[in-house]
Design goal:
heterodimer; A: 108 residues; mainly beta; 5-stranded antiparallel β-sheet; 11 strands; 0% helix; B: 115 residues; 4-stranded antiparallel β-sheet; 10 strands; globular
């Protein structure tokens, strides 16, 4: 079983829509959690850390459910510029495990 | 420097040749990671350096792959006798401390093509 699993998508949504991605992780000893964004042919960039209490950054909200071992990312009021692949990342003892990413296409 | 710097940005090599990829992490970052990403695929962990500790080499796919980090800063990833399946983007990332709670910053990668 993979360490981190994500629905590859693509998610095709119109501008202004709200879209949510989920990610599950297999090891309950995982310590910290992140969402990264990767544009086509570019390196991944940190979007936000994910905390147990949930955290929000503008239009983006991340949630962590340790009991069920899943992480979510909610994007409100989608913009064309949000089109990218979103990578779920889990850290355990200094090793980072990446999901294979969920592709988002925001259409006009 | 301001970010993680990798060189070369692109490398085309003939099958069987050796290549060296370079990563210059953010100044002061003690943790350095190498990943590779094949076209349309996720990131594959290769190797991790933390300070002066012995590196975690558990992700290196074969003994043709090796990496070193000199003086706790610059790292080189060497691939000997390259094969076509080595073609991928090789990404380096660094973080302060262990990066456990801060994530890390990637370089823009080296796109390796073995022909």
């Amino acid at each position: 079983r993979k360490e981190v699993e994500q629905d590859p998508g693509p998610f095709n949504v119109p501008e202004g829509a709200t879209v949510a991605f989920n990610c599950t992780y297999s090891n309950s000893a995982s310590q910290s959690f992140f969402w990264y964004r990767q544009d086509c042919r570019k390196e991944p960039k940190l979007l936000m850390s994910v905390y147990s209490s949930g955290n929000e950054d503008g239009r983006f909200t991340a949630q962590l459910n340790r009991a069920s071992q899943y992480i979510s990312l909610l994007i409100r009021d989608s913009k064309l510029s949000d089109s990218a692949t979103y990578l779920c990342v889990v850290n355990r003892f200094n090793k980072f495990y990446f999901g294979s990413g969920t592709k988002l296409n925001v259409k006009p | 420097g301001a970010g993680v710097s990798q060189s070369p940005s692109n490398k085309v090599t003939e099958k069987g040749k050796d290549v060296e990829l370079r990563c210059d992490p953010i100044s002061g970052h003690t943790a350095l990671y190498w990943y590779r990403q094949s076209l349309g695929q996720g990131l594959e962990f290769l190797i991790y350096f933390q300070g002066n500790s012995a590196p975690d080499k558990s992700g290196l796919p074969s003994d043709r792959f090796s990496a070193e980090r000199t003086g706790g800063s610059v790292s080189t990833l060497t691939i000997q006798r390259t094969q076509q399946e080595d073609s991928a983007v090789y990404l380096c990332a660094s973080s302060s401390g262990t990066g456990t709670f801060y994530g890390y910053t990637f370089g823009s990668g080296t796109r390796l093509t073995v022909v």
